[in-house]
Amino acid sequence: MGARFEELAWRETPIGAISLRRRRDPALQVEVYEVKLDDEFLMSSLFPVAEIELARLGLAGLTGDTLDVVVGGLGLGYTACAALDDPRVRSLLVVEAIEDVIDWHRRGLLPFAAGLAEDPRTRFVRADFFAAVAGDVGFDAEVPGRRFDAVLLDVDHSPRNVLHPSHAAFYAPAGLRRLAALLRPDGIFALWSDDPPDTGFTAALTEVFATAEAHVVPFANPLTGGQSANTVYVARTAS
After folding, report:
1. Residues near 172 by beta carbon (within 8 Å), at least 6 away in sequence
2. How confident is the model over 111-137, as pLDDT tens digits?
3. Rounded Cα–Cα distance for residues 44 and 207 (Å)
4. Of 174, 205, 170, 166, nearest to 188 (Cα)?
């Protein structure tokens, strides 16, 4: 069974101390993997549904047979793994600001994400997603200005609850326009949010994109015995 609690990795970063921990939940009889930033919980393997739906909803509306996809924010790897489950995905660029998070996957610390780092379609890019959008090169330094079929983003808690003040400008129309310029025609931008649908943010999306909608993703919460929900926004560029 192993130890009841184990801190698998810890590192101080410019936005705080990030840690990966594994614990045995005695009530649920499962091993839980959690990521914390300082004392704040960022993600848990108990609640992967919306992260998986981020990829599913984001890719579902694309019609191409060969898709080039960006995942912003690696975390526990659920979104990236779900993207690779789509056989149309020929390349997956995972943009992650913290080298240690990439290292967790390369070291195989997350058994449910096994194979992500080894998949030949995957390439990890150590970069600040928001700085990449604001810059002149884009996500792929090897091909400056490269455009993609989909960008799936899960970094901040929500457009209004960001991990760092420098992220806030991205969620305004000017920032979203820069992101849209990195998408192909009929390309998709999808975003995970911990908050209920935000009409103000949906309005910002519709100002930039041809279409935009907010999907409420309910999931069973084993800690409360009830249901919780996240939001996945899906926006599409013009044809």
Report:
1. 204
2. 999 999 999 999 999 999 999 999 999
3. 33
4. 205
For residues 44 and 219, the answer to whether their CB atoms sit within 8 Å is no
The Cα 220–Cα 173 span in angstroms is: 34
d(CA 93, CA 80): 9
Task: Give the Å distances, CA to CA, from 178 to 65, 72, 136, 181.
Answer: 26, 15, 10, 5
Copy the structure tokens of residue 103: 């290292």
Give the CATH number of domain 46-236: 3.40.50.150
Ordered by start, the domain boundaries in the chain are: 46-236
Pairing of strands 67-72, 148-153: parallel
Identify whether the C-beta of residue 205 lies closer than 8 Å to the C-beta of residue 235. yes
Nearest to 218 by CA among 66, 46, 42, 53: 53
* Tens of pLDDT, residues 5-62: 888 888 888 778 889 999 988 877 789 999 988 888 888 999 999 999 999 999 998 9
DSSP 59-106: HHT---SSEEEEEE--TTSHHHHHHHTSTTEEEEEEEES-HHHHHHHH
